[in-house]
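Reopening: structure tokens for the thiamine diphosphate complex, inputs below.
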Amino acid sequence: MSTKKAVKQTGRKKAATSAKVRAPVRKKPGSPISVTDEIDFMTRAWMMELEAVERYSTLADAMEEHNNPEVTELFRKLSRIEQLHADQILEEHLSKRPPVLPPGGIRWDAGEEGPETADPGELHYRMQPYHALQIALACEQRACQFFTKIARSAKNTAVRKAAREMAAEEAEHVQLVEDWLKRTPKPDPDWDHDPDPPVQSD
Amino acid sequence: MSTASVAAAPITAAAFKSAYKPIWCPGCGDYSVLSSITKAFAMLDLRPENVAVVSGIGCSSRIPAYTTCYGFHGVHGRALAAGTGLKVARPDLTVLVAGGDGDGYSIGGNHFLHACRRNVDLTYIVMDNHVYGMTKGQPSPTTEPDWESKLSPGGTGLRTFHPLVVALASGANFIARTFAGDPNGTAQIIADAIRTPGFSFVEILSPCVTLRPEQRGWKEQAHPASVATTSDPAKAARYLMTDDGFNIGVLYKGNRKPYQPPMGKGTKRVADLEAEFSI
Ligand SMILES: Cc1ncc(C[n+]2csc(CCOP(=O)(O)OP(=O)(O)O)c2C)c(N)n1
Ligand code: SF4
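Re-run output (same inputs, fresh job):
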């Protein structure tokens, strides 16, 4: 759908946003969590990665249904990367007693999701890989900030150390996505122009 | 090997997701609602074969097909009628009725009132995007009076419908509002709604990013309600009447006894039922 068209359609009530995929701006980098010990902390970290895996996979499905194969593939790849990270956490820190993901997902503060979970509201059916990578970059940055905050504030020494390691890993991921973005073509200015838009036409 | 020692693996949300991939627009809030519903079912340790998801017509009403539960994609505005009939006939099932604001508050508005009043033990979810999504953007009863579009030049100028106030006045036993952008919080509230006996109404702010792209901004507007859940309808009424439309939480939880008529003795054959309806 053309953004111009959408804005025209929505008229006075267009408020603060447009149909454009924006550089994701989501809220705080996850709520501070109170963890009892290192195992508890790593369990949270593992669940956080799994939430990200599931979300990327849902986004990939949505793009696949809308015949956007490039972005589909990218979201699938991101989902696989997060799964590898989750598996690594499980193997290195939780192998003795593998935890079970709570069926209702992890409860963050009201209105929040895990810091590494992509915001589905940022999607657009004509988005390009560059936009998808911007979403991924914001996720990695939030995760990095989140672990850095815990590394500074946790009372337990082992938790602080584990959080420092996680923050360093996430910082590496930020770098990886930034490099990936540099190699990815920037979208044309009218990337969202659809000659046959889904909104009511003249 | 003794089977007594083998604990059943807990059911996961994935067990409630069907193989059909949603065709909603990328970014549509309904994706998150689907995720919340399946999480809520898993939290309650339900089984797909014991749950029925009943809907009307609209983008949001496509939801039964995306679950592995029994599903009924019904007639526009009549989801509650079908859901009520099903629950009364099969009280053993968990019945979740779902749809949009057009389906539930326009054409289905009358059913909404009486479903609240009857207080049958089911949960009703409205994915409210303040517009008719499926039919390309006609204003709904919750559309702001000054929302302009080609179909409503200058806006409708009409006062919006307040579903939560109407639900309270009509007798719903559980009233909540959630935001699709918080799927885990929404899952908790849906689970609470299902657990609470009687008619539970959950209004979910679910952005339509295609026809109302400005609703992407809802994530900055939604906020936790400043009051705790009350069982006092007068208190709830005062709070809801001054509501800004973005208060999130369980806003009323009463203790009315659900309506369940006595069951007939035997099960009739389909042929007997048909004979009853023949003219
Ligand atoms: C009896 C009848 N009248 C009208 C329609 C056309 N119709 C289909 S969906 C719809 C509105 C859907 O809006 P809403 O319930 O808000 O759901 P959304 O698509 O926004 O999720 C209408 C008017 C219909 N299918 N049947
Ligand atoms: S038109 Fe709106 S409500 Fe329908 S699928 Fe698209 S975003 Fe969702």
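Chain B has a mean pLDDT of 93. The radius of gyration of chain B is 19 Å. Marking as resolved unless the reporter disagrees.
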